[in-house]
Amino acid sequence: MRMDSVRLIQNYNGIYNKFRQGEYIKKNKWDHCDEKKRKGAWTGNVYDRAGRVVEYGLENGVCQGLVGAYLISGQSWSRFSAYIASEKGKTVVRGIMNFQEHLSASGNMKEMKSVFHGILKSYQVNFIREEIKLTGNTAITMAQSILKSVSQGNGCHISIKKSSSGHSLGLRAESNQIKIFDPNYGETVFPFKNGISDEMEKFLIHIFSEYYSQYFMLTVEHYSASVFS
Predict the structure, then answer these.
(1) How far apart are CA 96 and CA 112, in angstroms?
(2) Start and end of every Peptidase C58 YopT-type domain (predicted)?
């Protein structure tokens, strides 16, 4: 994350925990050129028109898998970090992404939501509802749409998309703090009082403006679980 973003977090009395999904993928060898050495990760590759490999295995990202793990184990940064480093946590991240790759390859991506809901439910993280807004979004309206329906004890899978790609973020609203996890950059935590966090709203506007300015299709899935309280 850029230094101006880190300073913004500090100015808003927030906490920043750094993370890079690319480093996590490489550490686990999920992008190894030899499919037999990917340790259970997707064995397919992405090819260009000339037949050359442009992406090995899960090289393109594991954001939804990491968000799933975050909703399961993100009570604290240390707990989440330990979880995704464990074999159990890696199985969750890798499993979600393997499902995604398989469904994409077979033309059944519409099934991914129910698969994701089912995996989280097995960890007592229960889907409540979703809100979809595909047009007319700005950085401001996206931030406001996310936060207006968040309440203490809820978590969210936030999906943002543009025409050619998508990205997942995770949000946890706990007793006195609200957290956003971006697999590309890490976790940011702000105070959360009476269901309001002006700091988080300003920060979301910042990241949607500065990092994801082309992503204006928004889906927010809400979850409940005792681990969010």
Answers:
(1) 9
(2) 59-213
What whole-number distance in Å separates Cα of residue 121 and Cα of residue 132? Answer: 21
- Residue 195 is predicted with a pLDDT of 82
CA 54 to chain CA mean position, Å: 23
Report CA torsion sign: 43, 49, 52, 58. Answer: negative
Domain 3-228: top CATH class: alpha beta
Domain chopping of the chain, boundaries: 3-228
Sheet strands (E) in 109-182: 126-133, 154-161, 166-173, 177-182
* CB count in 10 Å sphere of residue 14: 21
pLDDT more than 90, % of the chain: 77
pLDDT digits (tens, 9 = 90+) for 27-50: 999 999 999 999 999 888 888 899
**Rounded Cα–Cα distance for residues 91 and 77 (Å):** 19
For residue 32, the tally of other CB atoms under 10 A from its CB is 18
Listed residue (184, 148, 199, 150) closest to 9, CA to CA: 199
Q: Chain centroid to CA 111: how far? A: 18
